[in-house]
Design a protein that fits this description.
This protein has 13 helices and 11 strands. The radius of gyration is 28 Å and the shape is elongated.
Length: about 375
Amino acid sequence: MRNARQAFERLLAENWADISVLLSLAFACRKLGDSQAALVAVDGALQLEPHNMQALLLKADLLDAAGQARVALTFYLAAIKYAPEARSLSEPVRHELLRAQAKCQSYEAQFAAQLKERLGRVSVDLGASSPRFSQSLELLCGEKQIYHQQPSVYYFPGLPQTQFFERGDFPWLDQVEAATADIRAELMEVLQDHAAFEPYVQDRAVGPKGRQGGLLNNPDWGAFHLWKNGAVVEGNASRCPKTMAALANAPLTRLSGRSPSIMFSLLRPGTKIPPHHGLVNTRLICHLPLIVPPDCGLRVGNETREVKEGKAWLFDDTIEHEAWNLSDQPRVILLFEIWRPELSQDERLLVSAMFDALNEQEGGLNSWSI
């Protein structure tokens, strides 16, 4: 240890210590079985380049061998974080990076098991008592990723980062779910008209095209609009009077020229809607599944749910989400948007007035969609 430190200090005094020399010294010391000397040398390397991947990996390995797993994990994670692009790495270095990733996964699984075992001694049913705490534990253990609201048009601050909302907090949904059979019957009539559904993602008259995952002008994701961009589609709505009646008490968003939108949303067999974010976080999206074959799902953030006929849910679409129909039959839901319940009546009026002003500035040329 003293010899290694003296050598390191001599290198610094003579001004020829660089990262390659110190790393070579560290690797040599480790090979000779002098882990303490190796730590001195690698710490010197990290003083010169704190984000050097090879130095971070070596420090992690030395700590791991010394039984300091928790600290070693932080260095493995740092090495992964600061690693250059994989294509710029040599094969041996790529192999080392993969080894670090495997180490992290192993440590995280081990820590999660120990933590859950310890919490299992607490006389509380974690899942039933606090789903929020259960999710926090999954995030802490690396089992789930943190997702945040990322609206593409307008962000209203201070609203909870909630993925799916509690069904019981929306009693007006009882009326919607109770009408499922009537709504489905009207949908079945519409489905007899093969021209009724239009591609949901269509060319915009102005502005650049976004990434649409192959769904631009593609009928595989179709829509039959009852309301579109804040206006009733008379010909369509008149074909579905019971559907419209079922939504009479829903707190639909009201933004002139933009909201509400109400539609039957169709996913043809084998169709996937790619991960994306919605426009504004002042609304929630509601789904009432009507025709649901097997292998259909919806992911919002880090939570995936199986779609069930007649069971409505509400979610924040400004959190990354995706949907799929992997069956050989079509999937159809009733989709509509409501105000965020946390917004006061005054705040809703202000948001609506703001978008009125934006409409005037844009001259009606907005690229709004649900």
